[in-house]
Amino acid sequence: MKKYFLLALAGTALISCRLDDNLDPNKVLAEQVAPSLRLSGASTTAYAVQAGSMNGLGNAWTNTWSGNFAQFGNPFTTESNLEITTTYRATIFQDIYKAVTRFQRIIDFGNDYANYVAISKIQKAYYLQYIVDLYGNIPYTEAFKELENPTPTYDTDVNVYKGLVAELIDARKLIDQYANVPSQSVLATSDPIFKGNMSKWKEFANTVLLKYAVRLANTSNADGVALRNQIIAELAGATFISSDVTINPGYSNASSDSQNPLYFNFGKRTNTGAVNTNGYYLMTASDHAVKVLQGDATKITSGISDPRIASLFTTGKMYNATAAGGTVGYYGYPQGMSNDDYKVFMGYTVNALKPSLTNFSFLGGTFAADNGAMENGYLMLKSESEFLQAEAALRGYAGFSSDQSHFENGIRNSFTFSKTADASAYIEDIASKNKVGWTGSTDDKIAAIQYQRWVALINYNGIESFINYLRTGYPETPLATTTVRANKPWRLLYPASEYSNNSANVPVVNQADAFVKNNFTPFIYK
Questions:
Q1: Mean pLDDT score, 30-48
Q2: Distance (Å, whole) CA 327 – CA 305
Q3: What is the full DSSP assignment across 423-444?
Q4: Residue-wise pLDDT tens digits, 349-373
Q5: What pLDDT is stored for residue 150 in this prediction?
Q6: What confidence score (pLDDT) does residue 32 get?
Q7: How far apart are alpha carbons 206 and 421 in whole angstroms?
Q8: Can you give the pLDDT at residue 30?
Q9: In 10 A of CB 454, how many CB atoms?
Q10: What one-character DSSP code corresponds to residue 479?
Q11: N or C: which end of the chain has fewer CB within 10 A?
Q12: Mutual orientation of helices 114-135 and 198-215 as an angle, nearest 10°?
């Protein structure tokens, strides 16, 4: 038993419920706090990692965002030169483990709170999959025990996948057994995602299981192949999410902590109304992203303009070495270029006028709005579910069909999400574009799925697109001009804190190891 006092219940929602009439509210042991008071905080803190550091990394490493040299002296340095270290993005590993530990404390309550346990298992599997995909071997069987075991051993990545899939399957069984038991109901106020609707939680569990199966599409690992086949069998007759999976515990501008974490990290305004210079203006759209979306002749989309760009990025005035600027349109920094590089890139000398903020495109839509802090967060978009089903069907997974229909539905859902005009004309326009529309070889169609998934998730879940890029090689993702690396890293390095606090167990992985396929590379990529 963990004999420490609970000083505060983490989470953005204020909790005013009484714990128990027989408990001294000033001396509440952590294990005495019911799951109904834990779930919202666990859900919101976990999502904050996805929306923040993970999202930023993914949008950088898919060459979607670029450092804003018009505002900063040396932005997005590591994101561009790829010289990663044990301190780079360490909070991804550290903060996901903190959040999942909160889910584990709910799971520890057992079947007295069966639906809360099911929800926690689903989110545990959802978030830890990202950690496996980014790091490979990680603590699992001995993890989440806090002071009882602060130095857990590392499990192999495939065994963690197997364990998490088992937890998802168990969660579905718990929902089947307890969803309609009144005494086991989940309070709507405790669940910022589905408000206690267990049918929707089961659909999400099915969709996460499908994501595991698709992640395993190319692995040669025998256990991974067996696991993929097991998941496909488990999903026979399953239904998947029918709408975007949103989260909103009551996001507001009351404080920085209460803002939607997408907006807090990358939106235009702080909670006080000031300009979020170190977030919103830290990056611009990349030159690559803008040109792909506008159908530049150098890109695979040549001649096809994507109207979703209007919701993804703002417009600017073309740099022409004058204060007034030139034609209004979409303009991004080529990733890695400095101001002087950009001047030359645009046809001027290094002595020309410095580019300004007005010359570039920044994050659009909700991110550019003054009230974006109150908007929903998004764990998973409906379009992502459609693209998963399209890929499963295309790869011949038993029970999956209508690959083209799912692909086109994914595009339509993306257009709806971005509040863009009907997708039919765009789908017709790309019909003959290999690796963009539904045409060509199976590999071309796999590439098209990844391309359209990338567009659908731009700004919102960059890490998902980056992992799928590593898994499939698509979509086209140019390296920054400043890197000497031949490719993006296959993994992140374990945090320095692991080498300090758990040195007996953490694998010794160096920077060079991250850029080649070896025994440290996550198994889904080999």
A1: 93
A2: 17
A3: SHHHHHHTTT-TTTSS-SSHHH
A4: 999 999 999 999 999 999 999 999 9
A5: 95
A6: 78
A7: 30
A8: 65
A9: 26
A10: P
A11: N
A12: 20
CA angle 425, 477, 86 (to 5 degrees): 140
Q: How far is residue 89's CA from residue 67's CA, in Å, rounded to a whole number?
A: 16
Low-confidence winner among 24-33, 210-219, 324-333, 474-483 (lowest mean pLDDT): 24-33
| Side chain identity at residue 87, one-letter code | T
Q: What 3-state DSSP class applies to 129?
A: helix
Question: For all residues of the chain together, what is the average pLDDT?
Answer: 94
Q: How many residues does the chain have?
A: 526
Contact status, residue 51 vs residue 265, Cβ threshold 8 Å:
yes
Ranges assigned E (strand) in 283-355: 283-285, 316-317, 328-329
Residues with Cβ < 8 Å from 396, sequence gap 6 or more?
A: none
The residue whose two tokens read 């167990």 is 505
Question: What is the predicted pLDDT for the residue at 26?
Answer: 52
In the structure, what pLDDT confidence band is assigned to residue 405 with cuts at 50, 70 and 90? very high
d(C-alpha 338, C-alpha 336), whole Å: 7
| Signed CA dihedral, 177, 182, 185, 188: sign only | positive
Q: What is the pLDDT of residues 247-257, one digit of tens each?
A: 999 999 999 99
Q: Does 23 have pLDDT greater than 70?
A: no
Note whether 382 and 241 are within 8 A (CB).
yes
Q: Output the pLDDT for position 22.
A: 40
Backbone angles phi, psi at 171, to 5 degrees: -60, -40
54-57: long-range contacts (C-beta < 8 A, 24 or more apart)?
Answer: 54/92, 54/130, 54/462, 54/463, 55/262, 55/265, 55/266, 55/459, 55/460, 55/461, 55/462, 55/463, 56/265, 56/266, 56/462, 57/89, 57/92, 57/462, 57/463, 57/466
d(CA 333, CA 296): 15
DSSP state of 373: G
Strands (E), 409-494: none
pLDDT confidence band for 29 (50 / 70 / 90): low
Answer yes or no: is pLDDT of 7 > 90: no
Return d(Cα 63, Cα 334) in angstroms, integer. Answer: 9
Q: Could you give the CA distance from residue 334 to residue 409 in angstroms, rounded to a whole number?
A: 32
